[in-house]
Specification:
Strand content: 15-25%
Pfam families: GIY-YIG
Strand order of the largest sheet: 2-1-3
CATH architecture: 3-Layer(aba) Sandwich
Family: Belongs to the UPF0213 family.
Protein name: Nuclease
Organism: Thermodesulfovibrio yellowstonii
Mean pLDDT: 95
Number of strands: 3
InterPro entries: GIY-YIG_endonuc, GIY-YIG_endonuc_sf, UPF0213_domain
Structural class: alpha+beta
Number of domains: 1
Length: 98
């Protein structure tokens, strides 16, 4: 079985702050953000809602994609999110069932 990596975007309750990250365990990582187990940007800005993710098979590919998205302006990130999740729902419960 090949390893999977995830590039993801999270936001706060009001969808005003966006955070892009990469991980090999999306459910664990989102749990850490939601419960503020890791100090830093996401804890400071109350970023607890998973609004977008995509899967990569290679870590280098995932990191490259993360950097690409991080370089985008807010409108481009918003369009990416709304292509998958037009209502900006929290996708955390959905990924737990994967």
């Amino acid at each position: 079985m090949s390893k999977q990596y995830y590039v993801y975007i999270m936001t706060n309750k009001y969808n005003t702050v966006l955070y892009t990250g990469v991980t090999n365990d999306l459910a664990r990582r989102v749990y850490e953000h939601k419960n503020k187990l890791i100090e830093g940007f996401t804890a400071k800005y109350n970023i607890t809602k998973l609004v977008y993710y995509e899967i990569a098979q290679d870590i280098k590919e995932a990191i490259t994609r993360e950097k690409q998205i991080k370089g985008w302006n807010r409108d481009k990130k918003k369009a990416l999110i709304e292509g998958l999740n037009p209502q900006w729902r929290d996708l955390y419960e959905e990924i737990l069932g994967e």
